[in-house]
Amino acid sequence: MTAVAGGRRRRLARESLAGYAFLSPNLVLLGLFVIVPLISAVVISFQRTDGFGAGTFTGLDNYSRLATDPVFWQSTFNTALFTAIVTPASMLLGLGAAVLMNSVLPARGLFRSILILPMAISGVATALIGVLVFDQNNGVLDKLLKFVGLPPVEWQSGGAAAFASVVIVTLWWRVGFNMLIYLAGLQGISPELYEAARLDGAGGWQRFRFVTVPLVGPSSFFLLIMNVIYSFQVFDIVFVLTGGGPQNATSVLVTYAYNNGFVTRDQGYAAAIGVVLLVITLVFTAVQWRVSRTRDLVD
Amino acid sequence: MTDTLRFRVLRVVLAAVISVVVIFPLYWMIVVAFSSRADLLGGTLRLWPETITLANFERVFSAFPVATWFGNSAAIAITVALITVTVNLLGGYALAHLRFRGSTALFLIALSTLMIPVQVIMVPLFGLVTGLGLYGSYWAVILPTAASAFGLFLARQFILAIPRDLIEAARMDGAGNWRVFTRIIVPLSKPLIAVLFFMSLLQTWNDFAWPLIALKQNALFTLPIGLLYLQGQFGSDYGGTMAFALINVLPMVVLFLVFQRYFVQGFARSGIR
Lengths: 299, 273
Prior knowledge:
CATH superfamily of the largest domain in chain A: MetI-like
Low-confidence stretches of chain B: none
Strand order of the largest sheet of chain A: 1-2
Largest interface: A-B, 94 and 91 residues
Radius of gyration of chain B: 24 Å
Structural class of chain A: mainly alpha
CATH topology of the largest domain in chain B: MetI-like fold
Order of helices and strands of chain A: HEEHHHHHHHHHHHH
Oligomer: heterodimer
């Protein structure tokens, strides 16, 4: 009896040990290169540093500087605006494209491959193609606008137009991903549901509104979180396409943090911007979880 | 009936228009890469090259160590992909089939690190990489990039679907965990390994923010960093920049199209990019 129990305990102990051992390569890497730097980032955000020497503690100085820094507020506003435009736009376009690609269509595989192709392009190349297309002096878009008789747009020197160019390039890059997730969701919907709706007299729009939209709910929830997290972190496109300009019109939190950390070398300040960004992300994700859980409870 | 037909035609037209919009910037990159400077400076709208020239490529290859940068990108991306596959497969097995205290908590902590952008940790991470003596080598990029819970979720889900009976039967025959892992889990996880490998390869090949910080020596540049550097030197010489952009983009586009199945599965299931 005790021998059996002892053997069982030994087996469980061995299993635990194996569990930690198998997970440890992943955990060691994450701990060393993510968790440890994260803790130091919080510590550094309370310091004044110049270059890479040890800093001196200055309490909440960096944070109170942030509160009165117009570029920080501009970057925060731009990050929020970018997120508020890109998230719904890429989800709507993605859902529309997915419905189209899920319908009866010749050469469907070819169309689908084309739509997801931007996912294979690096952010830097995407942004440089954007620089090429949106060049306001001799770019192809400028020539196209002139060709159809529209006035030229100041994609580079105009703040709003530059912001629009960042959004357009991002959508080109990101819609394929949204379509792919929705396509997987759509393929999980039983055709019988559409047949039943049709028999009940539902038209095309009603079938979309009352069958498709509710049933891709899990995909929408997942995409909402992914798109928001991605938008908070948009770096490659902004950094290469506009560099945050003109006059900070496209500056976002991550590019502003980069500039402080590695251009002006005000590293404590850069860390503080990063901590603010992280707190915003955490709050958003927590709210999302709560909302989705209450919704699950209601259903 | 004619109504259905009209809708069908409408759908094809719509799909074609969307496809043209998506493909045009890539087409334009290719046109510019093969156009002469004189052609590009003309003020008229021309949607195809007047004459096809390789001059842009010759200029890029003679002014920059393109082959070195290509090799750097390949070496870093392949190493990161191999590490990612290995650590996530090991971790996925532990989370799927081994019981140990705190496994759920560790899993959630690992997943939550995916929300941390590199810009939040870049200052101390740079100090750490320098302190470890990695600065100035590939490892300054490889190790922090490989430190990602990307794939852990995917690996756990996939390995959970491997029947427990197979594992129990092997244990009855006296196989330890390592033997179970190498003889059962790895052979049955080939599709997972392909997905993880290609996803990681694509991400690392295209990665920008951290290599920008960690690679300061010209000889260590990856293609995206080299591309930005080259654009800084060439300025408005779009022909040269696009020729090099094409070199950066082409390998992954080809891989993406050939192994589309794995990429699509990877994106659709993990959704982590």
